[in-house]
Amino acid sequence: MPSSSSLAVRELPLFPLPEVVLFPGRPLPLHIFEFRYRIMMNTILESDRRFGVLMWDPVERQPAKVGCCAEIVQYHRLPDDRMKMLTLGQQRFRVLEYVREKPYLVGLVEWIEDSTPQEDLRPLASDVEQLLRDVVRLSAKLMDRDLELPEDIPDLPTELSYWVASNLYGVPKEQQDLLEMLDTLSRLQREAEILTSTRNHLAARTVLKDALDETDFEKPGF
Fold first, then answer.
1. What one-character-per-residue DSSP string does the chain give?
2. Which residue numbers delimit the Lon N-terminal domain (predicted)?
3. Residues 139-177: pLDDT tens digits?
4. Which of 193, 190, 6 is nearest to 93 (CA)?
5. 6 confidence band (pLDDT: 50, 70, 90)
6. Does residue 75 share a domain with residue 96?
7. CA distances (Å), origin 139, targets 5, 135, 152, 212, 215
8. Which CATH number does the domain housing residue 50 bear?
9. Cα separation of 110 and 45, whole Å?
10. Domain range enclosing 174
11. Could you say which of 112, 143, 177 is where a domain stops?
12. Both 142 and 214 in a single domain?
């Protein structure tokens, strides 16, 4: 039975990818070389240019049930029929059932969206953005590099929650959990926890680095 967050149901070509979680509004460059996916993309390019991206679960050996629809915004066909393309995340979906597996996976999906917030999320979103800036500042200090956040960080809480989630590198399972959440508040709260932990870890490393640098500076020369 479709959930209360369901907006519509449709068949959607599906593209499982290992350790890749796409979020609404976020870009995903792809290199299409497998024959079955070349067939899929050629078919999609003749219709609405949309397909579903699902993270492949190596433990369960199957795709996740919740993914994000991608729209092809640019593509370049190579001489051997491989394709390079840029896609953009659209709305999220949940797979209800698989309707075809050959030559590529097709599922019956329902669109899902976050529930309407019952409180003003802007203060929490502002806290999350500040935590992100702290993480970038401390990372830059540790690496002795100039690092800055891009200027186009989303202002709206939901879009910001997707942006932050998409930039959590190396934790695809955590990203998948964030993708599956159905309210912005929970997603932002979890991101605040992750960023706070990261900030505290980086701050401790920065203190240690400063102490070691000071010790090296005070050593007598030979």
1. ---TT---EEEEEEEEEET----TT-EEEEEE-SHHHHHHHHHHHTTT-EEEEEEEETTTTEE-SEEEEEEEEEEEE-TTS-EEEEEEEEEEEEEEEEEE-SSS-EEEEEEE-PPPPSS--HHHHHHHHHHHHHHHHHHHHHHTS-----TT---SHHHHHHHHHHT-TT-HHHHHHHHH-S-HHHHHHHHHHHHHHHHHHHHHHHHHHHHHHHHHHHSPP-
2. 12-199
3. 888 888 787 788 789 999 999 999 999 999 889 999 999
4. 6
5. very low
6. yes
7. 38, 6, 20, 17, 21
8. 2.30.130.40
9. 22
10. 122-218
11. 112
12. yes
Query: Could you tell me if residue 3 is inside a domain?
Result: no
Furthest-apart CA atoms within the chain: distance in Å: 77
From 83, 112, 141, give the residue that closes a domain: 112
Residues 164 and 83 in one domain: no
**Total tally of structural domains belonging to the chain:** 2
What's the angle, vertex CA 124, arms to CA 118 and CA 126, rounded to 5?
A: 135
> Do the Cβ atoms of 67 and 95 come closer than 8 Å?
yes
| pLDDT at residue 1 greater than cutoff 50 | no
